[in-house]
Design a protein that fits this description.
Alpha-Beta Plaits, alpha+beta, 614 residues, 18 helices, 22% strand, Jelly Rolls, 8-stranded mixed β-sheet, 7-stranded mixed β-sheet
């Protein structure tokens, strides 16, 4: 079953990459002409003895590669040999760069042990696996030198010399290994920063689940580079159990598949079918659970099947992204380009894991490239969102300006609200104000001589002149009541009195234009009263309005009505005169008329006539 799964995986992933060249046979390696300027990769055919120490003629086994084909499985032990020939005199300062060997090994050079990883043993009871790399010095001699490597493995997917070994100068190989470590740590650092950045985005905006999935994806793939690179993490944590390292390592296969799928689903929810989530949870989630809960002997042999599942999932993701492009979702083209580049590196890693190609693991680099494309997508979305926000801001500014025509901004200020959306039913405040009522005399008789259209034109022409007068004197119009105006003045009483006189002056000018145009002049009555009042919102949840509730309002309205009785145009109350003060009152022409008991009020009103100074 395992061989069949590998064949299927090869057909699905390897065929598009073409045929891979066979390595040159190096069962015996002649380095007579070697210039020592660069390291030598010891790939090719080695002598191999399955489940035996070297004796007699061994079988040929390709290195790097697994012994599974000769052994029948990954479990067991065996011995490798390669003869290396040096000229006279033999070069000094030589070393061997031992890369990852699955799963425990002992390296001998001319019969002497120079390197050990874990505990090599011919039985599983004596065997202790480990993952480690390093550079070891070699004492060379002219002529043939024998390199022997004894390997044992139980519970891994592939076993043997699955990575190329390098022969070179000690300084050169140390630099080569350090370069590998630096590049691995650098890529991990980039992915860790991006992961923490996206996790921070999720912390500050918990509804953005895509940031969480992408942050975890970056961290898992960065960790994968540490585990399957030059094994730097094993050098930092030498006491970590091999089984734990295996679980984490295999989890870097399954978890990124699940996280990438969830990220795609969150980014393009309209294009992702409902059945995609169960496919992710059953496939990637199920294999991830196997990694965590079962020993390596259970989940490691299943890896080729999971890798084939990854290929199928990638095709589904491409289909989802294709739908997004078809439906012209913003950034979907760049997203697909980045994903295809990332998927190409994932395919490389799958082929590398199955020993089809001798390349390094590239998926962390592919993710960095994907991040670059993703940043371009985010840039496009940001610029589009910024343009939308500017458009919405302009729209809201126009909307707020329009709303102020219906609910004065002064009402918001009194209610201590920043915006109209903050106003709730029952909000109110209480403070002393001056209230002014202005009403057109005989409007009913006048309107009967006009059509409805002429009525509206006349009223708006009149109010267009009176509204600015109120605002120029620090007041605001609370209500237009047909031909009447109710205005509030939160400042000193002098504002309301000045506004009343200004209304009279504006009316004189308006009548001049009316008479000149052939229309009759109009008369108005003005009443001003000052006192405490309550301003707030009334109504119900679906319809509310701002209003003023107070005896002050009733008194101002009654004063306006008394202008008909006294045959004048402006009346103010005694309370208004008192609020004005003696010094300020001396600047106006005020005449006390009488005390009046008006409807709805027990206490009589002192009534004053306000006339312009000549």
């Amino acid at each position: 079953m395992r061989s069949m799964s590998r064949i299927l995986l090869l057909l699905f992933l390897a065929v598009p990459f073409g045929l891979f060249a066979e390595p040159v046979s190096k069962q015996s390696l002649d380095l007579t002409e070697w210039d020592r300027k660069s390291s030598v990769s010891l790939d090719g055919d080695w002598a191999f003895w399955p489940r035996s120490l070297p004796s007699g003629e061994g079988k040929l086994l390709k290195v790097p590669g697994s012994w599974n084909s000769l052994m029948g499985s990954a479990d067991g032990w065996g011995s490798y040999q390669l003869t290396v020939h040096f000229p006279e005199p033999a070069p000094r300062d030589l070393a061997l760069y031992v890369t990852m060997i699955n799963s425990a090994s002992e390296v001998l050079w001319n019969g002497a042990t120079v390197w050990k990883t874990g505990v090599w043993a011919p039985t599983v009871a004596q065997f202790t696996p480990d993952r480690r790399t390093g550079v070891v010095s070699l004492e060379t001699k002219p002529g043939d030198n024998l390199l022997e490597i004894r390997v044992s493995s139980w519970g891994d997917f592939n076993a043997g010399l699955t990575e190329p070994l390098h022969l070179g100068t000690l300084t050169g190989l140390i630099n080569e290994r350090n370069t590998d470590i630096i590049s691995t740590v650098f890529i991990f650092g980039c992915l860790l920063i991006m992961g923490v950045y996206h996790l921070g985005l999720f912390a500050f905006r918990p509804q953005d689940w895509g940031a969480l999935w992408f942050g975890l994806l970056s961290i898992f793939l960065g960790l994968r580079g540490l585990l399957f690179g030059p094994s730097y993490i094993a050098d930092l944590l030498p006491t970590v159990n091999w089984e734990i390292m295996m679980k984490i390592g295999y989890l870097t296969f399954s978890a990124p598949t699940l996280l990438l799928g969830l990220f795609i689903r969150e980014t393009f929810p309209q294009q992702t079918p409902r059945w995609f989530l169960p496919v992710l949870l059953v496939g990637a989630g199920g294999y991830g659970a196997m990694n965590l809960l079962l020993p390596a002997a259970w989940y490691s042999p299943s890896l080729p099947w999971f890798q084939a599942y990854v290929g199928v999932t990638a095709v589904i993701v491409c289909w989802i992204l294709g739908r997004a492009i078809w439906n012209k979702e913003l950034g979907s083209g760049l997203f697909l380009a980045g994903f295809l580049l990332f998927f190409a590196t994932v395919v490389n890693d799958i082929l590398k894991t199955n020993l089809f190609i001798p390349t390094p693991y590239l998926s962390p680099i592919g993710l960095v490239a994907f991040l670059i494309f993703q940043s371009l997508v985010m840039l496009r979305k940001f610029t589009a969102a910024f343009a939308d926000s500017e458009r919405y801001a302009r729209h809201l500014a126009r909307l707020n300006t329009s709303l102020e025509r219906f609910i004065p901004k002064e009402v918001l200020s009194f209610l201590q609200k920043e915006s109209i959306v903050e106003i709730e039913l029952g909000d109110h405040c209480e403070q002393p104000m001056s209230v002014m009522f202005v009403d057109i005399r005989d409007f009913t008789t006048l309107s009967e001589t006009m059509t409805p259209q002429e009525n509206f034109k006349f009223i708006n022409s009149y109010l267009r002149r009176m509204g600015p007068v109120v605002r120029r004197h620090n007041g605001f119009v609370d209500k237009y009541m047909g031909d009447g105006i109710m205005a509030l003045f939160p400042g000193p009483a002098q504002d309301a009195i000045d506004a009343a006189l200004a209304v009279r002056a504006a009316l004189v000018e308006y009548n001049h234009h009316r008479v000149k145009s052939g229309y009759p002049a109009i008369r108005v009555g003005v009443g001003v009263h000052r006192g405490p009042l309550m301003l707030g919102t009334i109504g119900e949840n679906q319809r509310m309005d701002s209003t003023v509730i107070s005896d002050t309002v009733n008194a101002a309205s009654r004063l306006e009505g008394l202008t008909k009785k006294f045959g004048c145009d402006i009346l103010i109350s005694g309370e208004t005169v008192e609020a004005l003060g003696l010094d300020a009152a001396s600047g106006y022409k005020l005449e006390y008329l009488d005390e009046e008991t008006v409807k709805g009020r027990k206490r009589p009103l002192k009534v004053y006539l306000l006339s312009p100074l000549v």
